[in-house]
Amino acid sequence: MGHNAKDFAKLVRNCSNQQSERECVATESLVIRTDFKSPDISDSALAENLEKLIFINLLGYPTQSSQMNIVQMMAAAREHKAKRCAYLCYGLLVEDTDVMMMATNSIRKDLKSAALHTVDTALQFMGSAGHPDLLEDLYPDVLALLTDRRKYIVKKAAQAAVRIVRLLPESSDKFIKPCLTLLKDRALVLAGLQLAVAIMRYGGPDMAAYCARELLPAVGALATLVKTMAQGYKTTAVQKTAPDVFIICAAVEFFGLLLAYVPSDDARRCISELLLHMPLALTAHAAILLEASRMVLETCKDETLQPLALNVLFRFLSHKDTNLRYAALTSMPAALSLNPTVVRRHTSAIVSTLDDASPVIRRRGLHVLLQVTDGETAKTTIRLLTEYLERCDKDLVPAVVSGLDDISQRYAPTPRWDLDTMLDVMTRTPLPKDTGLLPVTARLIKLIRGHEDLQGYATMRLHGRLTASGPLALHLLAISVVGAYCSTVVSDNVSPESVVAGIVKAMRMSSGTASGPVKRVGLYSLAHVARQYPDTRSDIVEFVKSYRTNLDLEIQQRAIEVVGLLGLEPHEISSVLCGDDLGAVPEDRAIDDDLMDLLGGVANDASATQTPATPATPAEMSNDLMALLSGANAASPAPAMAEDAEEDLLADLLPSKLAQAKPQPAAPESARPAPLSTAPMMPADVFSQPVKPKERVSAGQVVIELEPKSSEGGVFTMDALISCPVALDHVMLQAAAPRHMTVKLSPPSSREVGPGLPIAQQIVLTQGEGTGPLALRFRVEYVQGEAKEVHVCDANLAKMFR
């Protein structure tokens, strides 16, 4: 004889270890199976065993062996408790569809039972957990119960019918006539409304239109009922009683769906009276008004009701209830798409939410304000948000700056106005080390590069910001622009040496997480100054040499590269910094090189000691830079401690234009890049096409297996598994894509690879403008023994798309 359910639960909880718990569960499971086989098991014992079976399943132990017994017990149970436990076990534990369908006759028998609790239990199960195959066989029985004389059973049958309509939309037409009958009965009107809404929402447009026409005769009486209920429960000083909010809200939803397909004066008049005369004294009243306004704006879109719905939303914005204010803000996008003029007329109400006590309201209000801004209100919005920057929450600063950048870019009358606006925004940003401004820095560099008339003006404005306090992104912008266009500020009052001194001071003043990016940008900026003014080269070289032993490996590498570059002839420096292997480009394209250092993210912590990199000769350095990046957008591995948020924010600005400064000896055949022109051309919508499972390429001893993960919205993500049959040290993988794509590769891969020790990386390709080869080029560098090897291979991505 086993324990009852409560004693069994206590016994399991008192087990001292997992082994004793398993033994306890195994013993009780044997007792349960033995009881199930007994032909004269009582209903009380059956209920206890079913409860214990549910508890065993909740503990995580398998119960599949009892599925057939559960189906048998559903038919054997006679008392209400046993029947209820059997249905609960059936819904929770029976997973096999074939076994589930074996209970069809048992459920049909319960639906036709004379006992109220038996029919109720079966209908509740069908309304909450019924399987589509099971419902397809049993919906005629549910349809018959919709006309039962017992109203309680009819309500439960309507609940089951709603689930049938949701899972079997093709059966919706069978329930329209019973639904009309329910709508005419005051006691069953809520069940009828729920069924009607389900038919119109899930049955499809044609079925919804047919249902609206068939149910139109019931609209008049239903509208009268709703108005009577709303008027009869008006709030007074003596009595505060909420209206039957469920019936009114369901009726409003039904009216909104109906008006989308057929005209009805009764339905329109009912909704308009609710929007006009319903008070805001109780939460129930607010729920009715919110439902009515949403139905008008999102479903029926009736032009005569739209102004009334918008007035309700703006009443909510000034209400003391936070939930109502948030609900009004979430409904604003739908209102903006229907009547933007009226919404923009109430911009002041939206602006007031920026100073709300709730952070959720503040963030949502900012989102809505950015949505309602157009060309006429852009300047006002920029002024308000720029002032708001000084008092907003720290976590809201990136969102405000991003919104200002978007508005300025879209509605700026001139490029100079755009530049001045964003420089003012960056100056007012209260967070000195805010990295959320890095995308703004990237866009402004593009803007300055593309407008020659802005280069001198921007350099003059930013020259004074080199050593001033401000956010990290503004310092990076100033260092980049001043270094690239320093010739525009050099005059009798400003010497090249003072420009170098300003950049050096900015690099030395940086500290903390900002130190790494500032130093890496500053090194390349100094290289640009030395290119334009050779007399400053010796001083710059002496300063840069001090960074060749920096604890940050990225700074080491940049310093070595800059020292190597400055050892070349002036025309060779220009060819490396400004050249392009596809032909001559304007010299201002050189500013892109200032952002290469940001691809690795924030510098590693100074406490993490690293081995200094070996200095490279100028020829080796130039050749290494071009081995992968020639004519492509490249992705370099990030340092191991870099933060994802700063890893590749500006990678799309790197056009890889470093060219070989001198003729180099022929590279080994395995390391020589082959032309990608033979790869298939990329269609415009290639990243929206289905992908095949895997693609594999080899580079020397290394095997790279590409497995696609997702492909949508112009972004293609895949995993790269790097493996090798032998042990290799310091494996470094880099990837390059043609100019019409950008590639991002993470995390770093500079570590040991060997049998059973692969490296997993993620590759993200973003489709840009134009077309070209659908291919990737991999450069693999590793050490085998004491020999360093470099191999290059191409992956034809066209094979991965069907």
TrEMBL record:
Subcellular location: Endomembrane system; Golgi apparatus
GO cellular component annotations of the record: Golgi apparatus; membrane coat
Signal sequence range: none
Major subcellular site: membrane
SUPFAM superfamilies on file: ARM repeat, Clathrin adaptor appendage domain
Pfam family, one: Alpha_adaptinC2
Keyword Protease: no
InterPro entries: Adaptor_Complx_Large_Subunit, ARM-like, ARM-type_fold, Clathrin/coatomer_adapt-like_N, Clathrin_a/b/g-adaptin_app_Ig, Clathrin_app_Ig-like_sf, GAE_dom
Sequence ranges assigned to domain GAE in this UniProt record: 684-799
Sequence ranges of Low complexity compositional bias: 659-671
Presence of keyword Plastid: no
Protein name, entry field: Adaptor protein complex AP-1 gamma subunit
Annotated organism of origin: Carpediemonas membranifera
